[in-house]
Write a structure and sequence with these properties.
By secondary structure, the protein is an alpha/beta fold. Strand 1 and strand 2 form a beta hairpin. The longest helix is centred in the first third of the chain and has 41 residues. It is globular and about 50 Å long.
Amino acid sequence: MHNWKFAVLLALTLGGAATIFVFLNRNNQTEENELLAETKTAGFDGDRAIQYLDLLCKIGPRISGSDGMKAQQKLLKDHFEKFGAVVTFQKFDASQRSKVEKVEMTNMIISWHPEMKKRILICGHYDTRPIADQEPKKRDWYKPFVSANDGTSTVAFMMEMAHSMKDLKPNVGVDFILFDGEEYIHNPVIDNYFFGSEYFANDYTKNPPKHVYVAGVLLDLFAANGATFRPEQNSKFLAGKVLEDLWNIAAELKIPRFEDGKGDNVSDDHIALNRAKIPTVDIIDLQYEHWHRLSDTPDKCSPSAMTDVAKVIIEWLKRLK
């Protein structure tokens, strides 16, 4: 009789423990599923972004007007249209001081929700530099290099963001803009920069479209392993509210690579946009040691850096009104 009671008590105890285990396991599973759902909602996969980066770099150099650039343009048009974006090409000719011949350049505009009149832009350059002029030995300047973080990472980021854009329902239209001719430098002493952004900004001012851009984000040199971002000073002065919003969101999301303090003054594509009254912030990491060197290859880039920037931008897009 004593043994029977003990057996029943043991069974009840074990059954209760099993019930508790199942309950706790279900709770853990629920939390895990919620976390996965949040990640899925964001729709951004840093590892896949790096795969896009590899794909672009395998084309080789994508210098303005080159066959490599044309191959990239076709790849991008097919990719973004597959996700439902409207892709347009803004073509123009540019003359460089160190070159006699003109070069046809092309800005790419990838539009989401094109019917919306109030819009923001996310931008960067997609041309690669003809010379690796930070190489210590000048004979190495003219070797082909793929410029993975410097420009290509922005394109890969946008390719991956296409997966997110189909699920986002922002209150504003969104344009991804890829500028040509930012890096078309053959002689660093005398040549001009920023052909694409200058042309885009001038056209926006002289031929106002039916829509209006209320804010913008420029991405440049942002995807390196260990990248950190301090408020760039031209951005702070010219687009302070946009910068404040982005850095506050990063703080809320506990993304420490968006640091406080004073960043550098950077001449970049955002200057022309701000001059055209499009308040645009430059997210940039100037500590990148492979800048304009042959070593600027995909392995120097980080899926976590891309993902962190995506989290901030996606949350910013959700809050815009």
